[in-house]
Amino acid sequence: MTEPATSLRTWLETIDGFGELRSVRGAHWDTELGAIAELSYQRANPKAMLFSDIDGYPSGRVLTGSTGSARRLGHTLNLGDDLDDAGLVAALRGKPSRWAAGAADFPPEVVTASPLLDNVIEGPDVNLLDLPVPRWHAGDGGRYIGTGCLVITSDPETGEINGGCYRMEVVEDGRSATINAVPGKHGAQHTQRWFERHGRAPVVVSFGHHPVLLVTGGTEVPTGISELAYAGAILGQRVPVLTGETGLPIPAAAEVVIEGWLRPDHLQDEGPFGEWTGYYSGKRRPAPAMDIVAMYHRDDPIMLGAPPGKPPHDYSYMRTVMKSAMIEDALVNAGVPGVRKAWAHESGGGRLFIAVSVEPRYAGHARQVGHLTAQLPAAAYMNRFVVVVDEDIDAADLDEVIWAMSTRCDPAKDIDIVPGTWGSKLDPLLVEGAPPFNSRAVIDACRPYDRRSTFPKVSTGDPEYLESVARKWARELA
């Protein structure tokens, strides 16, 4: 059988051809695999890592770092195969809104054949620990099969399909896995609606797939648009799906899939887990656990790992680039003039610290941009700081942003604190048992609007002159 569209194996062949794939043999699933991956992220130009011959497992592989470079992410998003960081950002400009608008033209395509069906295991015989599921961090409460997963749910009334990336710990000696969907996310909302109407909720989970599904599942696709259709719009081809026992779509090009049901009375303790904030989140606590009715997998399947942690981590580069494009797109589409760049900094996990550069055109313009950014659907979840800077500041350069904050912001006048906003139970500042609110600061680090013409000039050379000098003295400056 030929490889299906959106095959992870085809993606890997291409990435290997770029020289951006490393093969790692013989690592142990218990923290060693995760430590190798963590060390890789901290290197300059980190590669994707394909782990095989995992200690104790004759088959089964784990991929990490899939979206951790401009070239890999550019290929994943169908933007080009030879992009650098600047080229990727330029290629992404305006794309999120176009993908959202085009998603309706790329509904999933139902198929009946797939290599995924080579191995079908009925619920009572399922053992997730037959796969080399890692314990990623030393402080994790267990082995997490769901890091780069896609959890597929539906709205019981509208049939709307959602795909989210939620952490999943193997429990009950491999017979089940918890799904820890963050309250407020579409997957959690769908599950609650099913519980209220039918007493149980259908769910499908893919554990290995083309990384475009990691991208769509891990970022805020607009409400009402299926992540599978959005992925189709990105790739320019419909995502093939099978129909399983629950009626939910099963990605036909996946490597490993389970399907089943969640029930409000089937809970298992899970956690803690090393989260994207860089801290272990909370204590061990109950979460919904799946009643698995079937598991499907290819021979020698590849699981897509995307373990979070202190930035930089597996998907922090992807989230930074994608969310920056989504935020900038949303501001432009809202009709805000003068926006130059938005950047959701990787050191803040792509969520906590956002900078926006703008050319202020009227009094209050910078504050308007800051407050809009802080509450945009693409940025609202667990944002903590929004900094608005002038057009001469590169919002992606943290040194420049901090310089602008240090020299153009009067803390007594230019910082607005907004309480009671959308936080997260993953917030290390959240007190145990408290509702997950947070506050955020909107920082106006632009030159005062009424002093723009008289504000002290920046003591650096004219950019065009500096460029000409750089050309003239290129050998000496190399």
UniProtKB/TrEMBL annotation:
<dbReference type="InterPro" id="IPR002830">
    <property type="entry name" value="UbiD"/>
</dbReference>
<dbReference type="GO" id="GO:0005737">
    <property type="term" value="C:cytoplasm"/>
</dbReference>
<keyword id="KW-0830">Ubiquinone</keyword>
<dbReference type="Pfam" id="PF20695">
    <property type="entry name" value="UbiD_N"/>
</dbReference>
<protein>
    <submittedName>
        <fullName>Ubiquinone biosynthesis protein UbiD</fullName>
    </submittedName>
</protein>
<dbReference type="Pfam" id="PF01977">
    <property type="entry name" value="UbiD"/>
</dbReference>
<feature type="domain" description="3-octaprenyl-4-hydroxybenzoate carboxy-lyase-like C-terminal">
    <location>
        <begin position="317"/>
        <end position="445"/>
    </location>
</feature>
<feature type="domain" description="3-octaprenyl-4-hydroxybenzoate carboxy-lyase-like N-terminal">
    <location>
        <begin position="18"/>
        <end position="82"/>
    </location>
</feature>
<dbReference type="GO" id="GO:0033494">
    <property type="term" value="P:ferulate metabolic process"/>
</dbReference>
<feature type="domain" description="3-octaprenyl-4-hydroxybenzoate carboxy-lyase-like Rift-related">
    <location>
        <begin position="114"/>
        <end position="311"/>
    </location>
</feature>
<dbReference type="InterPro" id="IPR049381">
    <property type="entry name" value="UbiD-like_C"/>
</dbReference>
<dbReference type="InterPro" id="IPR048304">
    <property type="entry name" value="UbiD_Rift_dom"/>
</dbReference>
<dbReference type="GO" id="GO:0016831">
    <property type="term" value="F:carboxy-lyase activity"/>
</dbReference>
<dbReference type="InterPro" id="IPR049383">
    <property type="entry name" value="UbiD-like_N"/>
</dbReference>
<dbReference type="Pfam" id="PF20696">
    <property type="entry name" value="UbiD_C"/>
</dbReference>
<dbReference type="GO" id="GO:0046281">
    <property type="term" value="P:cinnamic acid catabolic process"/>
</dbReference>
